[in-house]
Amino acid sequence: MLLHLDASARRASFSRRLSSVYAETWRAAHPGAGYVYRDLAAQPVPHIGEAWTELCDHILEHEITDISRYQEAARTPAQREAWAVVKPLLDEVVAARVILIGTPMYNYSIPSALKAWLDQITFPKMSLEGRSFVVASARGGAYGPGTPRESYDHQERYLRDFFRGHFRVEDVTFIHAELVNARIDPSIAHLREQHEQSLAAALKEAAR
Ligand SMILES: Cc1cc2nc3c(=O)[nH]c(=O)nc-3n(C[C@H](O)[C@H](O)[C@H](O)COP(=O)(O)O)c2cc1C
User: Fold this and answer.
1) Is the residue at 153 inside a domain?
2) CA spacing 20 to 30 A to 189: which of 19, 36, 74, 130?
3) Subunit comment for this entry (predicted)?
4) Is the CB of 191 under 6 A from ligand 1?
5) Whether the CB of 16 sits within 6 Å of ligand 1
6) Strand, helix or coil at 38?
7) 139 C-beta closer than 6 A to ligand 1
8) pLDDT tens digits, residue range 51-100?
9) Is residue 19 within 8 Å of residue 101, measured between CB atoms?
10) What does the radius of gyration of the chain's CA atoms come to, in whole angstroms?
11) What does the pLDDT read at residue 131?
């Protein structure tokens, strides 16, 4: 199953365009494999609250590593309410073989809508081994190797470290459309051609 998430606050979005191209290609190559779509910007998941942290602490304290046993942690009405938010989100993740995330870079990192989803579905020592993550991203500037802002990229670095370090997923692919701001920011309008090249390469990669 392909779980497809989008996190851009806007509809006419480059990360949405890239993720939709990837999803169309994947679905054509895997007919009948299943597909679930979730728009984290249009239908935001709530931030975690205190009862969620109690679920988390119980799972850690009782060394529950089997995801199918997490519900044991929901003992009070408030905890059961918190679990009712987590369960459908986590079921989708567990059922997925590929998790595709369309996301912009916001303030050198990821949108809070995506972070809220990650916070909801992540528990201590939780492995998602055997799955793949694909991140289709758009950013206003350029952050590739050798660029002046390379070290400011806390979008790819954060997600890569998180997926590898916490979920133990090695198969992580990033597709970036860069310099999107060259379309609107007069001070970098001269980089428009570089942006067009970056976008064309990203669309090609997404369709592969
Ligand atoms: C709130 C906000 C913060 C942004 N922060 C950054 C940033 O730190 N670095 C950057 O290169 N672009 C930044 N941008 C530009 C976006 O990354 C760019 O517009 C991108 O295309 C957004 O993705 P989308 O087209 O999928 O909506 C920001 C845009 C917004 C709206």
Assistant:
1) yes
2) 19
3) Homodimer.
4) no
5) yes
6) strand
7) yes
8) 999 999 999 999 999 999 999 999 999 999 999 999 999 999 999 999 99
9) yes
10) 18
11) 98
Pairing of strands 2-6, 35-39: parallel
Query: For the segment 138-189, what is each residue's pLDDT rounded down to a tens digit?
Result: 999 999 999 999 999 999 999 999 999 999 999 999 999 999 999 999 999 9
The structure tokens 């994947």 sit at: 26
Is 40 within 8 Å of 114 (Cβ atoms)? yes
Beta strands in 50-97 (DSSP E): none
Residues tagged in the binding site annotation for FMN: 13-15
Domain housing 159: 2-46+87-207
- For residue 76, being part of any structural domain is answered with no
In the numeric block, which tokens belong to residue 166? 């916490």
- Rounded to the nearest angstrom, the distance between the alpha carbon of 153 and the centre of ligand 1 is 12
Q: Mean pLDDT, the chain, as a whole number?
A: 98
Residue 41 is part of a domain; what is its CATH number?
3.40.50.360
